[in-house]
Amino acid sequence: MVTPRHPNDTVTIAPGVLLTIARLATLDVPGVVRMGSTPGGVDRLLRRVPSANGVQIAIDDDTVTAHLYVVAEASANLREMSVQIQRSVERSIRDLLGMKVASVNVHIEDVAFASATEPEGE
Predict the structure, then answer these.
(1) Residue 100 burial (CB < 10 Å; 0-12/13-18/19+)?
(2) Which residues of 65-93 are buried (b: 16+ CB within 10 A; e: fewer)?
(3) Strand pairing partners for 87?
(4) What's the CATH code, domain 15-112?
(5) Domain limits of the chain?
(6) How far, in Å, CA of 115 to CA of 87, rounded?
(7) Per-residue pLDDT of the chain (122 residues; tens, 9 = 90+)
């Protein structure tokens, strides 16, 4: 974590930065096809939880809770993929921002199968 040079110095990180870091760390995991859709509704709006592109982030003090909504490959081991996502997102937030991660919750919204009309091997 960055140590301020003066007692009154602060560093502010925009919520969009956290969303981008979590999304990119998730997409980097083998077996993830794309991000899913983030659930909306009045609950999310009233709690003012930052969300975009399949990622919801809640920040309490210096601690982050992430909800990730993904679409997986049909051939992927969903459990192993989910554990890799959790590790990747936690490590990215911890190493890049110096913030604690309370939890990383992975929601698999769909499984993408290859289209039957696509020829294999091309």
Answers:
(1) middle
(2) ebbbbbbbbeebeeeebbebbbebbbebb
(3) none
(4) 3.30.70.1350
(5) 15-112
(6) 31
(7) 556 577 777 778 888 899 999 999 999 999 999 999 887 654 444 455 566 788 999 888 889 999 999 999 999 999 999 999 999 999 999 999 989 999 999 999 999 987 655 555 54
